[in-house]
Specification:
Elements lengths: L1 H11 L2 H24 L7 E11 L11 E13 L4 E12 L5 H10 L3 E6 L22 H4 L2 H7 L9 E6 L17 H4 L18 E3 L22 H10 L15 E6 L9 H13 L4 E4 L8 H10 L4 E5 L21 E6 L23 E4 L3 E5 L3 E5 L2 H21 L5 H11 L4 E5 L5 E5 L3 H6 L6 E10 L4 E3 L2 E4 L3 E12 L4 E10 L4 E5 L1 E7 L4 E4 L8 E5 L5 E14 L6 E14 L11 H7 L17 E7 L2 E7 L8 E7 L7 E6 L3 E6 L6 E10 L2 E4 L6 E2 L1
Parallel strand pairs: 5-7, 5-8, 6-7, 8-9, 9-10, 10-11, 18-26
Antiparallel strand pairs: 1-3, 1-4, 2-3, 12-13, 14-15, 16-17, 16-19, 19-23, 19-24, 20-22, 20-25, 21-24, 25-26, 27-28, 28-31, 29-30, 29-32, 32-33, 32-34
Length: 713
Amino acid sequence: MQSWYFKIVSWDGDIMKHIGIVCMSACLFVLICLLYNNTVFAVDKYDSFNMVFSGYGDYVYQEKTEKYRLSDINELFAEDDGAETVKYYSAKVEYSKSAYDADEIVDVIRDKEGFLNASRDEVMYAEEITDLRYDPYIDRQWYLNAIGAYDAWNMLEDEPGRGVVVAVIDSGVNYYHSDLYNNMWINEAEAYGNYGTDDDGNGIEDDIYGACFDSENVYGEKVTGDPFDTDEDGHGTHVAGIIGMENGNGGGRGIAYGCRIMAVKAGGSDGKFLISDVISAVDYAVKMGADVINMSFGSVNRSDVLEALLESASEKTVLVAAAGNEGTSSGESKMYPAAYPFVIGVMASDSSYNIAQWSNYDSRDKNVVSYDIAAPGVNIYSTVFDDKYIYMNGTSMAAPVVSASAAVVFHDAKVKGIQDPAKYTFGQLINSSRHTATYTDGQKNVYTYNNVNIYDALTVKPSVSINVCGFKYFADSTGEAFADTVFLKDGRANIYCGYDILNTWRDAKNVKVSISTESAECSIINGELEAGDIEALGKKSVSYDDNNAMMFEFNGEKGKSYKVKIIYTVTGQTADEPAVTVSQSYEDVITVLSGSEMTDMAVVAPSAVSYAADSVYTTLQKPAKVKNLKVYKMKSGKYRKRTLKWKKVSKADKYVVYYSVKKNGNYKKLAVCNKNKYVHKYKQNKRFYYKVRAYIKSGSDKVYGKYSRIVRG
């Protein structure tokens, strides 16, 4: 204690000196503090960044504390919010790193009185298309470049096919696949409704991703709301991936990765699709809003019920189907639904732009008769069961390439405000491509077809494309119709031409068809027909027994056969102004067998015998056309009856009655009768079409008149 006191006293002995030192230190401290608040902060303790903020009044200019301050303040603009004036600023904020981090200082300033909002003044970037190599397996999708997908993606301002609904009628879809899940179509009424309830009133419970119509599905029910693909090979899942694999999440990439996949199960792992199931599936897809329907299946059996349904659906939906994998031409047999004129039938091409040898192909190149376009279908990489990917081959893979392309064009058409996007898309896909694929058959005949290209479909201006097809002829000396071969006993006949005119692109006006031939045995008598106007995707059928039918005279030598090439040239103009005239030519070849006295029947093909055996060229006058054909239906016992009646034809000796199960099908001879009446008896209740014609006989000669109109019974 004493020692401590001594020190104080000792210190006090020089107290004035020490007081002076203390005062100087205090002054120095005050000076440092002033400099601290009014000079640039030390680099090692302070940081800064630019920010934007809004607030009331001008006092924000003075906002400053010992831990931060605002500088370089720039007033951007002011606006009146109805009560006070709000001003917007940009500024630089300098702050103590020991007191705040960057986010905290923004919050501090925002919370100060008079400030409304504050944030960093950061750089924003233009939204460019995601790096095309982000999906690691995209290099395995060789077909993307072959169809112009990269070029198309780069020109679009939106995701390709964004929001377009593509229904995949197939074996179902594995909607849990990581590359498909986010791109599945969602039925929101069911997704956000009650489980086990038909929330949208369409007769199906819980159809969230689509529905199942497979009669042999695993649940044993006709219809369920679960279209899951249980097939390990995953045919439907593979098809769906080609169309809509997600962008940028690994795996591969769908051609229309902005679309939505509606899963509609109509078959199973056995690859079988009952027509009744397909009909239900198509009906569901259309009613639930599908813009495109993919059908990677088919049959050589034509169903008029399915045909009628699809024709109706084509008015607002783009229909796509596989041409089949039997390696046959459409002239040998046709695959349906691909061969219907309102369905895009797809052949399979490879990386060298050749039609695969196993792919079915159209027997007439550059002419959309049965199959309309080629698309990649060899080594196609896509999704399958259990989150995996594999390669598959087939027109089943080529069809979804076109369906995906359709989704991209469909969306673009809607963005452009085109009134009928389905018809527009149909026409653009099959007509616009500048790229082709070829097929060489066993006889070294080379066929050329359009190969689908999305970029062309998006950029080529629509035009007119008119096709002449479905040729059928009538020789007056035989009194029979034929498609490719005719037997003329005396080597002479007037041959009338029948055909279909298809407009596969935009509306056309002033359509004309003319015929010519290089055959010395032929003389053109009536070589031109004016068909008038044909709307987009419209069709006009010209019958050989039409009053305006084109005709040529054939005169050949007995004992010879002739190959006659007939050239059809069709011209038309675009419907809008200024009109653009387009001309296209198509060829058809018929075989004319000219008989001799010794070998009349020996050279005749079997298909020609039935209608050529008793036919000769004659100078007798032709009987008039049968008129007023009517059908009356009744039932008697186990038989059903249809009574056909028509107006008598002057001087006619007999009448021939023909029937067919299709209006434009192959008509068979049903009966020959003396009176203008015939009763057709049959057991099964079927629809038949009938036509009748008269003939005049002189000795062994017969001269036939024109067919009556076709009537349905």
